[in-house]
Amino acid sequence: MDNNLETDVARRTQARILDAANQVIAKVGYARLRMDAVARGSGITRQTIYNYFPNKAQLAVAVLLREGSAVNDRAKQSLPGDLQGVELLSAAILALVDAARATPIFEGMFEEGSVGYVNELAEHQQVIAHMMHDYWAPVIDRLAATGQVRADVPPDRLEWWLSFVYRSLLSRPAEDLDDRAAMDRLVREFIAPSVMVDRGS
């Protein structure tokens, strides 16, 4: 078989598996994700699925990466380019949360009973850290350009903290996230001080 054809078949097979896993997670949550359900949804045998993803955690990470990258792109597109300071930080957090909430899989990922597993996956996967770096590094750079980022905390720790905040917010009830005034106060009073320089204003 031609190598290009083999690659194309593998790519399409992997996409079918990820599509099916996405649908299962969106419906029942990560905690109840089962390879049998993915096999039924994709029409691909369990053995073939295991050839691509040796375990549930690796499959979930692949789904998170694919969907998370799309969320990042949507959030970046909705983030105004002229904001500075705490307004930029608040808008960046809310844009990412809004983009994730518009993706069905994130309801299943961050439902009660699943969020602990998801946080554990995120903490131990360099690929997810890289994806979060892709979103947060430009925001931190924009803050740093105006001297508003804490110099006593390394940028990668700031990215880790903002990623942790983002995951924590996704586990909050929808009514909390819909209260934009309360969300903005949360950013200003609790999140910004851990990221930004206190200018005494």
What would you note in describing this structure?
- The protein has helices spanning 3-28, 35-42, 46-52, 56-78, 85-101, 104-109, 115-123, 126-145, 155-170, 174-178, 180-195.
- The protein has a domain at 57-195: Tetracycline Repressor, domain 2.
- The longest helix has 26 residues, at 3-28.
- The chain is elongated.
- The mean pLDDT is 85.
- Helix 1 packs across helix 4 (56-78), helix 4 (56-78) packs across helix 5 (85-101) and helix 8 crosses helix 9 (155-170).
- Helices cover 76% and strands 0% of the residues.
- With 201 residues, it is an all-alpha fold.
- The chain contains eleven helices and no strands.
The H-and-E topology, N to C, reads as: HHHHHHHHHHH
User: Which structural class should the secondary elements be placed in?
Assistant: mainly alpha
Nearest-integer average pLDDT = 85
User: Could you give the count of β-strands?
Assistant: 0
- Give the low-pLDDT segments: none
Number of helices: 11
Largest sheet, if any? none
CATH fold annotation of one domain:
Tetracycline Repressor, domain 2
Q: Overall 3D geometry?
A: elongated
